[in-house]
Amino acid sequence: MASALYQSIELLSREKGIEPGIVVGAVEEAIALATRKFYKTQENMRGELNKDTGEITAYIYKTVVPDEEQVEDPVNQITLAEANGLAPGVEIGSEIRLYRDTSPLGRIAAQLAKQVIFQKVREAERDTVFQEYAHREKEVLNATVKRIEGQDVIYDLGKAEARCPKREQSRLEQFTIGERVRVVLLKVDRAAKGPQVIVSRAAPELVSNLFQSEVPEIYDNTVVIRAIAREAGERTKIAVQSRDKDVDPVGACVGMKGMRVQSIIRELRGEKIDIIEFSEEITTFAEKALQPAKVSRVSIADLTDKQLEVIVDDTQLSLAIGKKGQNVRLAAKLLGWKIDIKSEEEKRQEVEQQMQALSGGPTTPIEQVTELGEGIIQKLVAAGITTVENLADMTPEQLEEIPGIGEKTLERISVAVRHYFGHFEEGEEGHVPSATEEPSEGEAAESAAADTENPSEGSSEIASAEPVAETAEAELENAQEALEEAESVRAAAAEDDVSEASTVELEANAESEVETESLTAAELAVENVPPADEAELSELEAEENEEGKTETDE
Prior knowledge:
By secondary structure, the chain is an alpha/beta fold.
């Protein structure tokens, strides 16, 4: 019959889930260590437990060597002659044991043995737990809430205790002692001081296991869970796919009147769940993943980096992003792609900027076109035209809609813009002297010689001046029309008995306007003519002035 000590060892082994031999070995090692400490020796000592009597004996073990010359460690070695005196018939290389009395051991030695036994039992227990749960990671286990230590919850798994840290808990959950729950085994931490099994209530595997328990189609693999993205206590998105075309995967998970999914929501303490049908087409899958927001279009921005561009209506932007970006963050986890959400207005502005970058070079402020004059520039700036490029792109009809711009101003703008771009093109080929620069004597002589040698170039310059002369003739025709209007006004004034003084004054004003407009047109024609044609234009101006005076005298 086993002794009372051995029966206690067996009871302890069953409680801790370890083998009795491990506890017996711990006891024997503890007695040997305590005896060595008591005798203050470094001899190789071992303990032995008698299961029947419960007696523990300590022995010293020494190795047998041939003679004293080969003794290297006198503490743990003995010669053959000495060994034969203690135990006749021993052989070289064998061990001989010597009894060591343990009766003098006192309270201190017993306390030391107790500590050694507890340490060995604890190590054996940790090894047993590691071997039991190390290969069961991501498995869902049934557990009972044992106690709460600070922010951590300690669960009883049956064979071991498990710890659930704060980061692995749902903010919606609060448990009471003794409550049974399901937990996901994350890992076994062998270096932890307390419970080394780490469990979680926030892992996506918990939702997957709950759906397997509640939905028979998922249990028998008719409906497959393809992806899960979860933020514990907030929202979960789960993508499902049916292997049977006659089975609706979303309807199977929701159940009649939502009974199946409601059961899972109750288990998760009210956490929201979005069930989405999986699609192999990534753009279609992205549209469904961003529900409940309505997506306008989805395009692949970068296939290598797995980046999507999603365009939504301006009213749907906040809904697509979600509270603190939760909806788009979960959708990105579900897809495994990066998602860039933009509204229709943001996309339009981006496209406009890209078009401007493609079409435009450097812009030139409209103030640099000095031929326009300050008055015209102010009117154009007030209408929103601030660059020469914008002005050149506008049609005559658009310019006439601007207040204060008529036909004459329109022609002046056209000439000024044409001259500006003409000088710009000449500047690219070589240096062109500005209107304020005066050519040197050598340059003037060279240009005169060039004109003499190349009469065709001079004729081309005269041809280019012809449109300006035509413009001057048009101005004179306008002046003649104004004079005729003045004569008609004078006739009307005579019929209405208007005083002779006012009639004379009206004629004088009309004649002065005619002369002013004629001079202005002639000056404009002269200013716009290249230097080589000033003589010809001056003659034309003189003829026009004479014709104007003749008409005025008449």
